[in-house]
Amino acid sequence: MSKQYPGGLITKTPVTPAGPSQTGAASGVWTLEQQAYWAKLGLWPTAGVLSPTSVNYLVVAGGGAGGGDLSGGLTGGGGGGAGGMKTGSSFAIGASFTVTVGAGGPGSSSAQGASGFNSVFSSITSTGGGAGGNQRPSGPNIYVPGLAGGSGGGGGSDGTVNPGPGGSATPSGEGNAGGSGTYTAPAYGGGGGGGAGAVGANGTSSAGGNGGTGSASSISGSSVTYAGGGGAGTYTSGTLGLGGAGGGGNAVRGGTSNNGTANLGGGGGGNGASGTPQAGGSGGSGVVIISYPSTFTDLTSIDVGLTYAKTTSGVNTIYTFTAGTGTVTV
After folding, report:
1. Domain limits at 246?
2. Degrees, nearest 5: CA angle 198-200-203
3. Is residue 32 part of a domain?
4. What is the DSSP letter of 155?
5. Domain assignment present for 319
6. Helices (H), 144-244
7. Region for residue 314 given its phi and psi (left: phi exceeds 0; alpha: psi -120 to 50; beta: otherwise)
8. Residues 130, 133, 134, CA angle at the centre, nearest 5°?
9. DSSP notation for 35-84
């Protein structure tokens, strides 16, 4: 804009206030434009001075292992359940808190695979995903059910009249149940592992169940889907189950199983009959992410036992913890 004054024309060039991603002044010095910018947002004079007192969070536990083929018989291993997923905003934090990133449960060719391990942020705990079921080498009920977890593991299948039930989502509110296996020929499909967004599909006479889909979060600065269930295996024919969106592993029939995706908490893929014992896929590890406005200071210290990355997105500071356990000091 401009105005006419005696003696000449005075022109005013608008000034763009320096935001959090602009320096605008020497270190430790705020320009008037920066002060005005933060004051307009209601954040001056606290910008860059105070420690955060509350955060948004995402806590995903490790996924459960997929069911393996322990006998080489009429079996389809169930998909591993996804790790439990919890989110929240404006969560109050103290001077320090604990972070633990849960590992995925390992698969096995000699016993049922393991459920995933819990992830922890402060007082928030997400529960590891349940392991997928499989077929025992012998016994009156040779199927093995999926185990309960943040999301339940899919049930194993066998050639008897007893379908393997899927595991429940326990405690509730973190995920969904796994699907049931079937005893129906020719595929004897196992049940898909549950995901954060949907239950695992039941196995059928022609296919293994697909893993339940996960759930999306944008806390990292972009939308990412976490906690998908693992797909289930079949006997020597039939369609193999697909892992759910969010890191669930696809099923295989013999050979190396597909693991859940690391730091998404996906369930491991199940394995089908191949004539020799085969392990199911291992679950994917979990993740813990916290976010708060960049007007507050960085965290003071983080234990060396934690693997993490600090990033920024827009006006937020983001800490992503991908492995380990330890104490964080604010």
Report:
1. 59-304
2. 150
3. no
4. P
5. no
6. none
7. left
8. 150
9. HHHHHHTT-TTTTTTSPPSEEEEEEEPPPPPPP-BSSSSS-BPPPPPPPP
What would the pLDDT profile of 121-157 be if each residue is shown by its tens digit? 999 999 999 999 987 665 555 668 999 999 999 999 8
> Does residue 214 contact residue 225 with C-beta atoms inside 8 Å?
yes
On whether residue 46 sits in a domain, the answer given is no
d(CA 311, CA 230): 30
* CA–CA gap between residue 208 and residue 179 (Å, rounded): 10
Contact 211, 241 (CB under 8 A): yes
Residue 255 maps to a domain: yes
What is the 8-class DSSP label of residue 173?
A: T
When pLDDT is averaged across residues 232-253 and rounded to a whole number, the result is: 94
Q: Locate tokens 């003696």: which residue? A: 7
Coarse DSSP helix, strand, coil percentages of the chain, rounded to the nearest 5 percent: 5, 25, 70
Q: Give the pLDDT score at 69.
A: 80
Instruction: Let me know: does 20 contact 34? Beta carbons within 8 Å.
Output: no
CA dist., res. 276 & res. 70, Å (int):
8
Tokens found for residue 222: 């972009």
Count of domains observed in the chain: 1
> Average model confidence (pLDDT) for the chain?
87
Residue 252's pLDDT is 94
pLDDT of residue 242 exceeding 70, the answer is yes
Please give the sequence-ordered ranges of beta strands (E in DSSP) within the chain, or none if there are none: 2-5, 8-11, 54-60, 85-92, 96-100, 119-121, 124-126, 215-217, 224-226, 287-293, 301-302, 306-313, 316-329
* Tens-digit pLDDT profile for residues 9-64: 333 444 444 445 444 444 455 676 766 666 666 666 655 579 999 999 999 999 99
Neighbours of 208 (CB within 10 A): 41
